[in-house]
Design brief:
mainly alpha, about 75% helix, binds protoporphyrin IX containing FE, globular, single chain
Length: about 375
């Protein structure tokens, strides 16, 4: 097969590869954390709302409303924290990413409409929730739109690693409507993200309950049902992790198992997921009062687990692309320190604003007041 990647971009990278990689992994970790809380939180909120209306349980209905009320703001974080890694990925892997996304162009473009519709449906569900009406069917529709976005990202991120199928897909049609052929790594990779969402999303709901001024029954339900959802998701995550690794081609597994960085990252990931499991178990078993230390101890393991996964994922991409002739570390670099300085300055200001808005959101009391 001829060299499958488009020719090298004539413009050199304005900063070293490691610089872009650091920010790619950092912002992608944040993006994934918010994706997990959004998806996992929505799944649980839908379930509780459905059960609450089925069994006429005001506590379950109230808990679903509390969980739902925070999701629209979380979605803004998912989207805003998705943009930086998209830019860094394009800079580093543009030749593979652009080709992959163009080959499924209409589906990739459809992300914009799915995002807008999913967002609108979340707000609509929130409106019904404040009126005490059942909103779970609208929640399911919103979840479908949100999962569509995740599924297309998984598809494109997998397709960019398989240049051997690009020509075949283009030969079938140049319209981009042909879905990529079967790839054994695609489903486990997507399911790993979804299991992590149930795990970390459930944990987030349980932790959130400890901090809010809610009726005791609602608080206790959120803590226990959120924690149980989290436990289930984290067990599934461990299984999905094994499946995702085993589904990788032989050359990727051989390269990873021979790398001491991979062994360290894998051990870190397993320990952090187990520590998250213990955190969920603690929240389920006994009422917890919010303290900063408890918050940090519960949030740190998921953050470490997601960061380890992001770096492993990055290693898998580099090994796969390197094997197929695209070594990102060989990119031409011509560092422009003025641009680097401007970027770092604006990144610090942007991060400070994000943190400030997040702290305001955490203190805000809106729909929950109805449930006190
Ligand atoms: C509700 C909306 C979203 C969901 C559920 C979601 C979910 C996901 C998932 C599941 C992946 C992992 C793909 C894989 O490796 O299998 C992913 C990766 C990614 N997402 Fe999102 N995403 C959302 C919105 C966005 C938006 C709006 C952007 C950018 C504007 C974005 C940027 C990215 C990027 C850049 C990656 C991969 C980066 C890399 O591999 O280097 N996401 N997202």
């Amino acid at each position: 097969m001829s060299y499958p990647f488009p020719h090298i971009d004539p413009i050199p990278l304005p900063a070293p590869v490691g610089f872009f990689k650091f920010f790619l992994d950092l912002t992608l970790t944040l993006h994934f954390l918010f994706v997990h809380i959004l998806v996992g939180g929505l799944v649980l909120a839908i379930l509780w709302n459905w059960l609450g209306h089925l069994k006429k349980s005001p506590v379950q209905v109230a808990a679903s409303g509390v969980a739902l009320s925070r999701l629209p703001i979380l979605m803004t974080y998912v989207i805003n924290l998705g943009v930086p890694p998209l830019l860094f990925t394009q800079v580093l892997y543009g030749r593979a990413l652009y080709t992959g996304s163009l080959l499924v162009g209409p589906y990739w473009f459809g992300i914009i409409f799915a995002l807008m519709t999913g967002y609108f449906l979340l707000y609509h569900a929130g409106k019904l929730s404040t009126q005490g009406k059942a909103w779970w069917p609208w929640g399911i529709l919103s979840l479908i739109c949100i999962m569509y976005v995740g599924k297309i990202y998984s598809t494109v991120m997998t397709l960019m690693l398989t240049p051997e199928v690009w020509h075949g897909m283009y030969d079938v049609t140049a319209r981009g409507t042909n879905f990529p052929p079967y790839d054994p790594t695609r489903t486990p990779r997507f399911l790993l993200m979804m299991a992590a969402s149930l795990g970390f999303g459930g944990l987030a709901m349980a932790l959130y309950a400890t901090k809010q001024a809610l009726k005791d029954e609602v608080k206790s339900y959120l803590r226990q049902a959120g924690g149980l959802g989290g436990l289930t998701g984290l067990l599934l995550l461990l299984a999905a992790g094994v499946w995702a690794f085993q589904s990788q081609p032989d050359f990727v597994r051989a390269a990873l198992t021979g790398s001491s960085l991979f062994s360290t990252l894998l051990a870190t990931w397993v320990v952090a997921v187990l520590a998250s499991l213990i955190g969920a178990l603690t929240l389920v078993k006994q009422p917890q009062r919010w303290t900063l230390a408890r918050g940090v101890l519960t949030v740190a393991p998921p953050a470490v687990a997601v960061a380890a996964y992001v770096i492993i994922r990055d290693q898998v991409r580099d090994v796969t692309l390197g094997y197929k002739g695209f070594d990102v570390w060989q990119s031409t670099v011509n560092t422009n320190w003025l641009v680097v300085g401007l970027f770092l300055g604006s990144a610090v200001v942007g991060a400070a604003v994000l943190l400030w808005v997040l702290s305001v959101v955490c203190q805000a009391r809106t729909v929950e007041e109805n449930y006190e």
